[in-house]
Flagellar L-ring protein
Amino acid sequence: MSASPTLKPHSAGLARFLALAAAAALSGLAGCAYVPQEPVVTGPTTTRPPPPPVAADPEGSIYRPLYSNRPLFEDRRPRNVGDILTIVINENTAASKNSAANTTRAGSGSLTLNQTPGVIGGVLNNQGLDASGANKFDAKGAANANNVFSGQITVTVMDVLSNGNLAVAGEKQIAINQGTEYIKFSGIVAPQTISGANTVPSTQVADARIEYRGKGYINEAETMGWLQRFFLNISPF
């Protein structure tokens, strides 16, 4: 009757250590499955207007200049921090690129030994030396891109520059089922480009930064797996 084998204390500790190491390695690889995305729009996307100035004591006049935050003879266009306006996004960009390269290199050389000592001549059998080489490289590349982005987003005036231009920024989030889509926008708007409907096209916004991203299982399904990215990075082809 044979006795069943038992693990020694140090063997059990080694197995426990290997199990913990494997779990840590799997956790690290799972963390590599997420690819962080660099944000395009940085900084806050909303702000609150400053508090109104303290009104002076009434002097019996019907008109009080500080009663409203809007001048009496000016329109309702945004001009102060905290005001809002609508950006009509209508971006359409197209680009194409073609490149080609072709290089050829060839070389040859010969060596003839006419007078050699007898021993060396016998070894070489009175023969010369010829060498030649050739190198050729052909490469072609082409790229085409066509992007269309349309929509609307209402932004907030974050700052009023010294020349009167408005620094605006805004964010819109839409949650659909298990995913969330959000749009961020920032840029510099000239007051004269704002229409009477309090809108301005995105093509007339300076330093425009538009960001459209999503979160959820649909967005994760479009992301390459960590193992595939690993082999793609180390592949020499």
